[in-house]
Amino acid sequence: xxxxxxxxxNNREYEEGISLYQIAQDLSKKLAxxxxxxxxxxxxxxxxxxxxxxxxxEFFTIDDPIALExxxxxxxxxxxxxVKRLWPETLVAIGPAIDKGFxxxxxxxxxxxxxxxxxxEEEMQKIIKADYPIxxxxxxxxxxxxxxxxxxxxxxxxxxxxxDENAVISLYEQEDFVDLCAGPHLPSTGRVKxxxxxxxxxxxxxxxxxxxxxxxxxxxxxPKKSALDDYINKLxxxxxxxxxxxxxxxxxxxxxxxxxxxxxxxxxxxxxxxELERYxxxxxxxxGYDEIRTPIILNQQLWEQxxxxxxxxxxxxxxxxxxxxxxxxxxxxxxxxxxxxxxxHSYREFPMRVGEIGxxxxxxxxxxxxxxxxxxxxxxxxAHIFMLPDQVITEIKxxxxxxxxxxxxxxFRYSVELSTKPxxxxxxxxxxxxxxxxxxxxxxxxxxxxxxxxxDGAFYGPKIDYHLKDSLDxxxxxxxxxxxxxxxxxFDLNYIGEDGNKHRPVMIHRxxxxxxxxxxxxxxxxxxxxxxxxxxxxxxxxxxxxxxxHDYAKTIxxxxxxxxxxxxxxxxxxxxxxxxxxxxxxxxxxxLIVGAKEEENNSIAVRHRKLGELGSMTGxxxxxxxxxxxxxxxxTNE
RNA sequence: GCCGAUGUGGCUCAGUGGCAGAGCAGCUGAUUCGUAAUCAGCAGGUCGGCGGUUCAAAUCCGCCCAUCGGCUCCA
Length: 638
Description:
The protein is of the alpha+beta class. The protein is 35% helix and 26% strand. It has an 8-stranded mixed sheet with strand order 17-21-22-29-26-25-23-24. Strands 7, 8, 9, 13 and 14 form a 5-stranded antiparallel sheet that branches. Helix 2 (65-86) crosses helix 3 (116-130), helix 4 (141-151) runs antiparallel to helix 5 (154-161) and helix 12 packs across helix 13 (429-445). It starts with a strand and ends in a 7-residue tail after the last helix. The chain binds one RNA strand of 75 nucleotides through strand 13, strand 14, helix 7, strand 26 and helix 15.
């Protein structure tokens, strides 16, 4: 008997000599699963989801990421084959599976348009219908090179040249289409059921903007038509949460042609900004921060001193004042350094935490602007912390905690990256290593999970980056903690130590929201516009049933107004249903309906946007309820 | 910046060479209404901008601007 250990921890016994196919069949019955892929030695055989590596068998359902990846990768080959059939002179580059599907990069004299999608999909259908076996072939490096050279597929030869000298090179063949590929794949093209071409994009070969730009086709595939439909529906739903759409509908902000990348905040958007800032100030006061404000325009000499002139110039805006050269600040730090230098400092003041909610301008390339997520003028909730070297870990950990307090307040899940030394940077290798190690140590001591993001640090130091997701699961960097040994050096910052001598302080830059603009964008999508009451631009709307109750409605309005509740009185000449619909679409937390009944017993009928009708209560009762909700910044009462 | 697509009233969109349209929003009037759209009327556009082709351009061509989806870059 043969004992095989499975991923679920169970051992199962099989006859010696049983084929994996039979094991898969057996599993298929046991699990009553409709998943149908088996992976063995890189070749997917038919049945249940089984992978073996080193004699260990693991099973997967088709919904498992690995199986789905294989499935999509095969779909990607089918798409490439279809494209090569339709436009034979097309060269193929790479075509991996990605999070929500797959893409393939092509170099073709034919310019693809969305009109081609139907044609390509039809050709794919033919390939699927023909159910060509997918065969793995192993070549030596030389054989593989010769093979692709003869085909003129120079992207493939370039890839092979990058592989290890002695590597066995695998090709996967389906009918007349052969692709360089590590595999694995489905056993034949007929296994692919549901797929759809999604969009076109340009993409540089190997992600380098100096290289040839290729045409990328994004597509997706699912084992079932219904799963594909679900995905398409989800995309439609996500579009409804888009902060650009909601920003317009809810009157939060606008972006105009007159100022590309420079958002205008409207009254309702300002309420959210101001509430965020208020909350920020409260928490920072508790955490021992002071607040400053530094100028937006400062002279060239300062930016030369800070290193921005050399390392950041292409992102800066410049201006001239009385024949002197000035720049609009892209970061708050140099101003913060100058403030530090206004006094002599003692080690006794440390850690010294100085915050600044500062407006910065960065010249971003035109093609990267994206609603509030990526703009050219934004407000960073910055702070610089000056400290002794042995306070670093403790301070970083305190910032990690502070960020957690904020993100929890909004119910965010976040992921963390440690970004290391970029190509364009200042300072010695040793300093970088020391700084990077400190950040890693703090993360480890907090037990945080994080990924290394190589080369993505700021030019003056490594950083811990916090990423939040938008409605389409695109991630955006918000919070960041940056350890900086450079600025104190450049600005010759010092403090008097216990020994009476001058020393160099260590500095952290950190933001929590990151950019208030971006944060509002993320918040809008996160809540789908239904902001928690403490943030909601309008917290309650009073709706008289008809004109007869306008006076009574006015008295309620005044009561709420006097309690600083953001409320509106809707005395338009419309029916109740119309006004309720309007209030719901504006995502106002509470609608207060007043009519004959309410006027008679001095009450209001309260309707919550999610909970529906809450019944009748007095104005005082409502005020007490909503005031607690606002005071405690309740995230949800749904 | 690069690749592709798009741009028509405040918003969403029809209109593919021959008189610029609809719905919603707005305004006026009627209605006085009980939990997601009451009825009628009125008003509103240099069709993103500039140039070209044509008897005639929202429509065809060129350049530019902005937006959208990506790439690169980044809070």
